[in-house]
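Sorry to interrupt, but I need a hand with the structure work. Could you write out one complete protein record for me, on any chain you like? Could you add the entry underneath, on a fresh line?
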Amino acid sequence: MKSSLRKEIMVLWSVLAIMAVNANETLISGVESDDTILKFVSKFSLAFSTYNFVDLLSFAGTFFLLMYIYKEPRKFNLSGAIVSAIFSFLYIWSFSYKTANDTSILFGNSFQIFLTVMMFIGLFGLFYIIFEFFCVLLEKQGTCNGKKEEFGKKHFFIGVCMIMLGWLPWLIMNYPGSVAGDTIGQLGQFFSGEVNAHHPPLSTFLIGGCVKLGEILIDRNFGVFLYLLLQAVLGSVLFTYSVYKMYELGISKMYCVAAMIFFVFTPLFGLYSQWLQKDMLYSEFVLMYVLLMVDILRENKIDGKKTILLFTVGMLVCLLRNNGIYVIVPTYIFLAIYFRGQQAGRTCQHVHLTVVERAKNSIVWCRVFDLKRKRHIRMIFLAIATVILYLCITIGLYPILGIKNGSVREALSIPMQQTARYLRDHGSEVTEDERNALEGFCHEYEKMPEIYDPTCADPVKDIVNVEIRNPVGYFKAWLKMGLKHPETYFDAFMNMNYGYLAPNEQNVEPDLSVSYDQQLVDMGLRRMQKDTPVQIFSKIVFINVAFPFLRYMTMPGLYTWIVIVSVALLIKYERKEAIGLLVPEIMTILVCLASPLCNGLRYELPVVFVTPLMIAWTWYQVKAP
C-alpha cells in the first residue's frame, strides 16, 4: 500500500475513533422521530461533546500511535478484532443501560441506529489500535527468563513498611475505623450469640473476636482498630510478596516500582484498609491463593507441602465468603485438566519414539508418567475434599454450634430482579398459577413493581420470604414468564451488571462519616475523629473518583476488561495453559454478575488485588522462552 494512502486511512481511522469517544455522552439526543435531512444534520452536529483541545490532542495521539504500530506491515490480528468487538459492544450496551435502563437510546429511531453503528465502528477501531499497541510492545521485548538476583529480606521489609506507611494515615486519622452496614449485623450476631450463615460465620467470629479482645485490653473501639491493623499488616505482606513474585518472574524493575506505587498511594487501598467489613480479608486470601498458584504453574509441579498449603488457603477462601467455593473448586478442576493434558502430551511424545529410544528411556519415562498422573489426581482429590469438607462444616458443624442457615434469597438476586421487572412491565399477563407461585416466593409480591430498583436488588430482596415455599413452583412460573418476555429478563440482567461489563460506572462504597449508626453506639462503639480529618480524606477519595486516568481505578468494569485482554493475549501467543492463574479472577467476575448490586467494587476486590500480578504473569508467559 502506498505511503500516502496509508496515512489517509490512518487519518480517517483516527477521526472515527475520536468521534465515537466524543459521542458517548450524547446518544440520548435525537430520540424523537425526525426524518428530514436538515434535522438529521442538526442532530448530528449536536451529538458530540468537545473539551477545548482535548479532541485535537486525542486525534494526534491516535494518529501517531497508528504510525508507530504500522511502521511495517502487520497481519490482521484476529484476537485483537474479537476483543475489540466485545469491548465495543459491552461499552455501548452498558452505557445504554446506565443511561436509560434499556436499549431505547440505541435503537430509538433511524438516527439513533446510525449513531450507534458509527460509535461501534469508531470504538472498535480505537480498541483494536490499543490491543495492537500492546502486541507490538510484547513482540519488541526480549525473552523473559526470570531474575536470578535475590530479592533480599531488606527489600521485602522496606516494601512492607512502605505500604503500611501509605495506609497508616487512613487507619489512625479515622480511628477506630468506618463500619460497613453488613458488619453491623455481624457484630450484632456475635454479641447476641445468635449467629447465622447469612454472613460467613468465620468472618463474624474473627471480627467479633477482635472487638471482644479489644474490650478486654482497652475498649471495643480498640478492638475495631486491632482487626483493621492486623488486616492491613497481612495485606502489606501479601502485596509486597506479589511484587517479589513479579521481580522473580523477570518483570522489569520499573513495572515492579509502579505496582508498589499502586498499592501504596492509590486512595482505594487506604479507604478499604480503614473500613470494617469482610471483603478485604477475603480478597487478601484470594491473592494468597493465586500467589501459591504462580509457583505451581511456573514450576509445573506440586509437592505434598504445597498441596496442603493450597488446600488450607483454599478452604479459608471458601469460609471467608459464602461464594468463595465457586472460586476455588473450578480452579482445581482447571488444574486437573491442565495436568492431565500434559500427561497426554507426554504420552503422545513417547509413542513416537523409536524402539531403541523407548528401551533406553523406559525407566525414566515410567517415573515421569507416575509424577504426571499423581498431579492431576491430586487436583481432583483437592476439589472433592474441598466440597466434602465445606459441606461437613456448613451442614454438619454449623447446626452443632447453633449457627442457623442463611436465606436462599441471597443467591437469587437476578431471578428476583427479573420477576420484579416482569411484574412492573407485564403485570396484567400474570396467570392464576403464576400468582400462586409468586405468593409462595414473596408475601408482598404486589409491591415488587413499586420498589423495584433496576441497579440494586436489596429493596426486592428485603420483602422476599426468608424460606421460599414451593421453590420448584416458583422457578416453573419464573421460566414461563421469561419465555413469554425474554427481553424483559435480559434487560433486568443487564441493568444489574453493566458496571461489571464496562468501565463506565464508579462505586466507592466505604464511608468516612463522623458518626456511627445507633446500633454501633448501643454496642459501645463510637467515632473518635474530628470533622477535619474526615473532610481531608473525603477530598482525597474525590480525587480518586474524579481525576483523569486515576478515576478508572474505581470502575469494576476496568478490571473485567484487563482479565479479558490477558486471556486473549495468552490465547493469541499459544499460552493457554497459563490461563489457570486467571481462573479465580474469572470466577470472581461471574460471581459478581449474580450479586445484588450493578457496580459493587467490593465484590470485585479480589480481581483488583490480583491485577498487577495478573498483568505481570501474562507478560512473563508471552515472553517466556
